[in-house]
Amino acid sequence: MKIAAIKTFVIDCYRTNWVFVKVLTDEGISGLGEGTLEYKESALVGAIGDLEHALIGKDPFDTEWIWHENYRDAYWRGGPVLMSALSAIDMALWDIKGKSLGLPVWKLVGGKCRDGVPCYANCWFAGAREPEEFAAKATAAVEMGFKGLKWDPFGKNYRQLPPSDFKKAMKCVAAVKEATEGKAEILIECHGRFDLPTALRVCNALEEFNPYWVEEPVIPDTLHALADLRSRVRVPIACGERLYTTQQIMEAIELRACDYLQPDSSHAGGITAMKQIAGICDARHVPFCAHNPSGPVANAVTLALGVSTPGYCIHETLFDDVPWRHDVIDEDVRFHDGVMYPSDRPGLGIELNEEAAAAHPKSEHWLRHYVGTLTNVRPPDSASYFARDDG
After folding, report:
1. Which domains does the chain have, with CATH numbers?
2. In this structure, are residues 140 and 179 in contact, taking their beta carbons and an 8 Å threshold?
3. Is 191 a catalytic residue?
C-alpha cells in the first residue's frame, strides 16, 4: 500500500473552521486527520501542501519514520502551523492502519485501560453574560451528566483585571460553584490572560471555590513565569495546549510549571507524538488530559488516547456543536453518565461526506478572548453530536 494523494477541507463550524486532511492510498483505503488551527487555516492548508511531495509513494504504515522525516526536513522545527500539519497527517495514517487491519485505533495504540473516559464540558455556557445565566446553564449541563464544567469568567480583560470585573468574575464562579456543588467539578479557564501579579491574585481568590484546576493563568510566552506562579499558589495549575513538541512538554515538567498537562492532538504531533507525551507524563506522575475543543476527528483521536493511556485523567469535550456536524461527519460517539466512549469501528471510526463539507465552506469569524464575544460560540440551533444513553 502506498500514499497516492492528499486532500484538505476547510469547513465552517461557526466559532472557527475545521481543517481536515484526507490521505488516499493506491488500494482505495483513505484516512482522515484534523489540524484545526483557529484563524490560521490558510497557513495550515499551505503547510500540508508543502508536505505532500514527501508523502506520495510512502507506506502509510511507516508512521514513526514519516513523522520524524517530515519534522526533521522542515528545518524550521516546531511551531503551531508545522506541528498541526504533521498532526493531521499522522492521524490520517493511523486511521488508514486501523481500516486496513479491521481494528479500531485504540487497539493499535495499547488497547483499553478503561471502557470510556469521564468528561468535562466546554461551550456549555453559550450566550451567557451574567452570573445567574451561567448558573442556569451550568445546572442544565450537570443534569446531562457531565463530570465537570470549564469556562472563562474574565470577559475581555488582558494583563490586569479591573476591580469591577474582578468582582463580577468571582460572582460568576460562585454562582456556578453553587449550581454544581457535589455534582461536578469546576475548571477555570484563563486563556493566558494575566501578568504574574494579577494571576497570583486571581488564583488566591479562586482557592475558596476549590477548582479542579486553573488553566493558563499567565501570558503563555514563558514557562518560567507559570512555574513561578505555581510555586506560590495552592490551586492546581493546568497548561499545555500551546506546547507543540515533546521537548516543550519536558521543559514544562522539569520546571514544575503545572499540575495537569493538556497537549492537543491536533497541534502536538498527532497520535505518534501524543503517545510519547503520555509516556513522559506517566513517568513523572503528571496527569495527562488532552486539550480537545476542536472537531470530530480530534475528538475521536483523543478518545482513543483516553481509553488506551493509564494516566489519562479527564476528557474535554464540547457540550454541543453546529447542527451540520452530523451531515459532514459520520461518527459513532456514545455518552452515558458523564462518560464518553470511543467507536469500535475500524480506524478512527469516522468518515467525511465531501459533498456536505462543500456546502459549509470556510467562513470568517471573530469570536475572540479579548473582545468580549467568546460566549457567542454556538448558533441558536446547535445540537448534541453524541448519542446519549440514559439507561
Report:
1. 3-103 (3.30.390.10), 107-388 (3.20.20.120)
2. no
3. yes
